[in-house]
Amino acid sequence: MKIIRFFLIVCMVHTCLPPAALASTNIMGANAQRYFDLPGQPLQTGLIEFALQANVTVIAEQGLIAQYRSGPVVGPSTIDNALRLLLAEAPLQFEYIESAAAYVIRPVAAQQGAGVEPIEIVIPSIDEILVVGSQYPFRYNTITNTQLHGAVPYFDSSRFLNVIPQSLIRDQQPQSLEDVLKFASAITPGDGISDSNDDVYLRGFQRHAMYLDGFRLGDSSGVRLLPAGIERVEILKGPSTIHYGQAEPGGIVNVIRKKPKAETFSQVQLIAGDMGRLGVSVDVNRPLLNTKKANYRVIFVDDQQQESGDILNIHRQLLSSSIAWQPSANTTVDVGFEYQKASQEWDRSFEVFTEFGNIFPHRSMADVAKQARPGFTAHFNLFSAEVNHYFNPNWQLQLKANLLQEYRYGIRTTTDSYLDDRVLLNTEGLGPDFALFILGSQTVLPLIVEQHDGLWHYGLGPIRSIYDQDDEELDSGFSAKLEGSFDTANLEHNLSLGVDWHTQNIAKRYVVERRDIALGQRWDAFEFEAAFAELAQTLFIEDRPLGELEEYAKELDYSDFGAFVQDSVALTDEWLVSAGARYIVTQADVNDITLNTATQLKTFKHLSTQAGVVYKPNHDHSIFANYSEALRANYILDDIGSQITEPELSNQYEVGLKSYWLGGDVQTSVAAYHINKWNVVDVQVVEGYRTALNGATYEVQGIDFDLSAQVSPKLNVLLAASVIDPSITDGSNTGNLPKMAAEQTSSVFTHYQLNSKLDFVAGYKFVSERYADDANTFRLEAYGTFDAGVSYTFQLNGLHAKCNLSVKNLSDVPYITAVDRGARVNESAGRTISASFQVTM
């Protein structure tokens, strides 16, 4: 039995109607146009998807619909006509009951002559019916049947796919995308360039980029995507070059933003929490110019927090505006603009010098290196446009265009910056023998070693510190995709083909402070100890004058072009095979603005392939297997960029099972896979110079498992687990584990609805030990965190109101989320408590 809203009202309806009344329609449904994306599938799941996309309630006897399949419904249609097409392959019809605002599915009535008395029609009792509304029949449907690439539903795809639905996002009360992804299998947090952007590891591999409505964001972004603007998240496990271009073999995360809806509402939420958290969000959806053909949506978020781990004065803002327009019955146009501002500071009070007698005092990072700005700020501007045109119910053309401009100001500590041969790690003039002391990854103190007359002498070279940094990034993307279905030789083909083009321009500027406090001076071992005590006072004096400033600027111009095709063929009702390929061309130029030089990097041309097979013994089980490939060009914006000659390549073999159990109350996905990745770049410092060693090989094999279950009408549960066996099989670290690869992860999330007003949630996430680097010199301990929350829904002066209380890391476990070896350790935030009040009008 599946129950959602409106049940008792609907099920108490008892009507006496003549036979002709069975064909009566909903007047609003007859006139309202919706865009449907429903493949042929089991009728029960088809009705669920229909109710979700049409935003209506449907009632049907489970025994009546269990043996039938739905007809496909693709493109614009009225609600009534779409439901007729959905029932076309079954001897069923529908009736709209206006008093209950619901559609009832019934058998086709026998033809009766005139003068026959009206027949009493009784809606079945609640124990016999399936009621579906604008939500899924249970709370967390992580395997949807919405079409994916060429009219193939997720359940019938040969790939492992997860969806984080809006219901789960809402229940989690997340503060970040990391929270949203927390309870999916095989996902662990990454560094995110000093915790300034969204970063995850999938199946042991760091993400190449985040995707926003299919548009690839740069991996050096300075903003985090705010949950208030997210509708759902799609996770595709494994290599994904066919449809997404360059990618890492672990998979991709595609964030789907909230879009305008064909309804009117306003929602305001106020948030307060410990560590100085204050926030407000506003979501407004309205018809545009009082027309039914266009709607607009505006989302505003302002979120502030004084402290989170070692990050201070966090301030994030979002302003998202979008318009959905239907200029004709077969065409939709969506345009939007999104602005984000993010700022934060890092705690620089950590110790870099321990007090040692009279030689030198205790000093923090703030004492050692001055900075032009107290923190980091990013401004993110994204324009997007999308056109969908349906030539007929079988064929659709989709055009997308995106333009992103981002400005970033302030220092984000990374190994790329302090190991750059011309920024901090500048060994010019130090001689053949020297030692470099890197302090907090922001200052380099060089010790010069020389031999005179058989005695060792020591000196201090130029001390270099990062004083300022700013970046500017301009990305653009365009794609055209044609999807459709056709038959050849009694075989149904679902075809997807298209082209896309992506460009990226990144300009980086570093300002380095150089101090020569002992230029040319040399001491023997005894003299140097005494001299250094005096030098330390000069080094760390609180109001010392600023040293000489040096500026270094570089620019990367990058572009890739791709053309892809994929065909899925239904051989029988049980067997489906698919094959696809992408041809990709990448090219890049590095411009050294300081030296006024330009270097053209190698152009890569590559053909990636993908193949899969699906066997469905019945409507509830889908056995799948696939082979897929991925490519990533090694274009790095620093002094080693021109040394890299080959792209990183990867492939995957995967087999798995997707299932519905207990009439659909339980959904499971399980997959076993083997991933190979070669031509991996290993950046090392060799004789004082940053060197790219191209040729390492990684191998990961593992098992992923996800379960979503409605245990009872009041209790929903999510379970996820992943076990991997990662290894470096070739290169300088052969036999070691890849950095940040967790061999075991698991999670559970539960939602319990005590009554119509009170809800409770609880979750647990476990991440096993990981190594901070490929050399396996630093190990991160395993950790587990508990989350909990409660919400209370009520009416306030006729408005829908809701109060939430959320606790993250309930047991206050200290742990490290990620490490950028030699540069930064990301500390956990500890226990955080937040409360919110939300009202919907």
UniProtKB/TrEMBL annotation:
The lineage of its organism: Bacteria, Pseudomonadati, Pseudomonadota, Gammaproteobacteria, Cellvibrionales. Coiled coil: none annotated. Belongs to the TonB-dependent receptor family. Residues 56-108 form the Secretin/TonB short N-terminal domain. Pfam families: Plug (PF07715), TonB_dep_Rec_b-barrel (PF00593). GO terms for cellular component: cell outer membrane. It is found in: Cell outer membrane. It comes from Saccharophagus degradans. InterPro entries: Beta-barrel_TonB, Beta-barrel_TonB_sf, Plug_dom, Plug_dom_sf, Secretin/TonB_short_N, TonB-dep_rcpt-like. PROSITE patterns: TONB_DEPENDENT_REC_3. It is a multi-pass membrane protein. Residues 1-23 form the signal peptide. The keyword Membrane applies. Keywords: Cell outer membrane, Ion transport, Iron, Iron transport, Membrane, Receptor, Signal, TonB box, Transmembrane, Transmembrane beta strand, Transport. It comes from the Bacteria. This is TonB-dependent receptor. One of its GO terms (molecular function) is siderophore uptake transmembrane transporter activity.
